[in-house]
Design the sequence.
């Protein structure tokens, strides 16, 4: 039951995980490179772009819709998921929560970038322990009005978030999509 709860919380927050990774992928899609305008380079650095924000939110919406489409299957394999799947119980909720979680994740990342600039860190440099935690904190805060998980669930998210982020960044580095492995 414990692992089913962890899988359930992972699925609920899946739009945030995906939204955090998508801007790196979107940077490498030729047709949308023209949207690489920085949101506010002085405040957040040149790496936080309109393209990444839009791609991240769209990916979150798509993941939310997929969670809606597969909710019956998820309830059948995860009995505890039935208590929470109502977050993705119709098209509108799937659209909203997927986009909202993605926006929360991206805002968390942008806020971290703001503080990195204030402390004199250059874009792309490590800013531990906040790298990887930032987007998950943003998603959790954005979801508090609709979903209140337990302390263990949030600790799980704050552990798995940085690990997945590090893994995805390492893969993107190996492919050549990122200049650094972190």
Sequence:
């Amino acid at each position: 039951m414990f692992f089913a709860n962890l899988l359930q919380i992972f699925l609920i927050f899946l739009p945030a995980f995906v939204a955090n990774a998508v801007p790196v992928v979107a940077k490498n899609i030729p047709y949308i490179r023209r949207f690489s305008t920085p949101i506010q380079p002085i405040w957040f650095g040149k790496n936080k772009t309109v393209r990444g924000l839009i791609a991240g939110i769209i990916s979150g919406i798509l993941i939310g819709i997929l969670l809606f489409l597969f909710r019956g299957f998820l309830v059948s394999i995860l009995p505890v998921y039935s208590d929470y799947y109502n977050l993705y119980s119709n098209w509108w909720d799937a659209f909203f929560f997927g986009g909202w979680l993605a926006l929360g994740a991206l805002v968390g990342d942008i806020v971290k970038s703001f503080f990195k600039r204030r402390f004199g860190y250059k874009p792309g440099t490590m800013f531990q322990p906040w790298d990887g935690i930032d987007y998950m904190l943003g998603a959790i805060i954005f979801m508090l009005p609709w979903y209140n998980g337990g302390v263990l669930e949030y600790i799980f998210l704050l552990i798995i978030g940085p690990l997945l982020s590090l893994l995805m960044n390492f893969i993107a580095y190996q492919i050549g999509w990122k200049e650094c492995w972190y």
